[in-house]
Amino acid sequence: MDNQQKGSFHIPLAKRHSNAWDMFATWVGANANNGTWYIGGVMAACGFLLALKILFFSSALAYLCLSLIGYIGFRTGISTMGIARGSFGIRGSILPSLINVTQFIGWTAVNTFIAAMSVSYLLHDLLGWPVYGKIGGLKGMIFGIIVMSILHIISISSGSRSIQLIERIGIILVIIFVLWETVVVFRVVSLSQIIDWNVPAKFKLAPGTAVDTVAAFNLAWVTAGADFTRFDRKATSATIMPFLGALVGVMWFAFIGLVATISIAISSGIYDPNNSDPSSIASRLGLGILALLVIILTSMTANAVNLMAAGSALTNILPKLKLKYSLWIVALLATLVTFIPMIFGSFLDAFTAFLDYVGMVLGPIISIMIVDYFICAKMKYNLAELTQKNGIYWYNHGIHWTAIITWLIGAIGFFLLQKIYFFQETFGATYIDMLLSGLIYWFLTSFFERKQTKC
Q: Which residues span the membrane (predicted)?
């Protein structure tokens, strides 16, 4: 491995430049976005109080995992998918890396699609173009997707410092916007009206299904945790700040989406979860062009994190590929994926299908990585060996089949648990499946791999 590769794989403490505020701002900014507003609007199908409870507890559990992965990133100075080599093997880590690439490309596409809706509304207000969903509205959406993709490529091409700048400026403007939207919402309806609002029976979302929805939304960030905390100088800010920042961000912005969606349902007498996107909400609340511009900006703040995580995962798959080129590749792929909801015909249907995929494949990966580092490896990875062929992390021809088999069991287990009525109405499948996956991995490595003395 040459010096350039070593530098990209491991970040020594002396070369780290992030601090506690950077970590907090990054993770608030990660959730200060269109997707979080939208998930809040979707959660309105549970009713206000139940939605808040599920948002908090499901998010807190997910971000506890974010803190654990963030700590590993701080200790090792290695990206999340680089860390995955310890549990999945050097070649085996290609599996979680491929999944990470696909899911972060998916999230980039989700945010880009919602931002393109805002562009569509802007073009309607400025030029009279039809908005998306109306006859001729595809023209504005296609133009919006292209514009947003160009902005994303410009932002990531400018380096990590520019991403930090986007986050810092963006979060200030977004905070101003959500305060403004909150004032507008509560001028229309009161908090007591929102609390008392009843979901139409045909739109009700089962509690367990809602837990899984929120879990999938939040767990997606966990596999990006170490990509950022490996640049942090202190363990406390690498663990506490991602948890606090992400939790504050998701609760705040999902709350806005939740109350805005319910307020429109109350004032109009019609509730349609398909109209929970921020662009439709901003338009119906009469927030104007400035609000649409802020929504576009939030796409850039969230997708800076999404694209960086996807690019890092692609670099783990193709170590000779420079991060800059990886970022360009994933940005272009995300542009293509953004057109998929148009094929589905319903953004909500496409979004729900995507969340099911994320929950099924990510939960077991995260459990395996956490159990391997904290229990099996006793918080010690040999960093040099993580890149060495025939070393301790080479396992069987570069693949740790125990991790692969456990992941497969976990993915199938999630699919089966999700179909059980009891879990649909109570805890959901995600966290039960993660617990079982962690226990299975620990059992298999403890009783069938004693020679490796990992557990």
A: 37-55, 61-84, 104-123, 135-157, 169-189, 240-266, 286-305, 325-348, 354-377, 398-417, 429-448
Asked if the model's pLDDT at residue 270 lies above 60, the reply is yes
Domains of the chain by start residue, with CATH: 18-452 (1.10.4160.10)
DSSP string, 205-268: --HHHHHHHHHHHHHHHHTTHHHHHTTBS-HHHHHHHHHHHHHHHHHHHHHHHHHHHHHHHHHH
> Which of 18-32, 40-54, 249-263 has the least mean pLDDT?
18-32
Q: Is 380 exposed, middle or buried (0-12, 13-18, 19+ CB in 10 A)?
A: exposed
Please give the Cα distance from 414 to 216 (Å, whole number): 12
Per-residue b or e along 103-114, where b marks 16 or more CB atoms closer than 10 Å to that residue's CB? bbbbbbbbbbbb
| CB atoms closer than 10 angstroms to residue 131 | 19
Report pTM: 0.85
15, amino acid identity: K
DSSP tag of 189: S
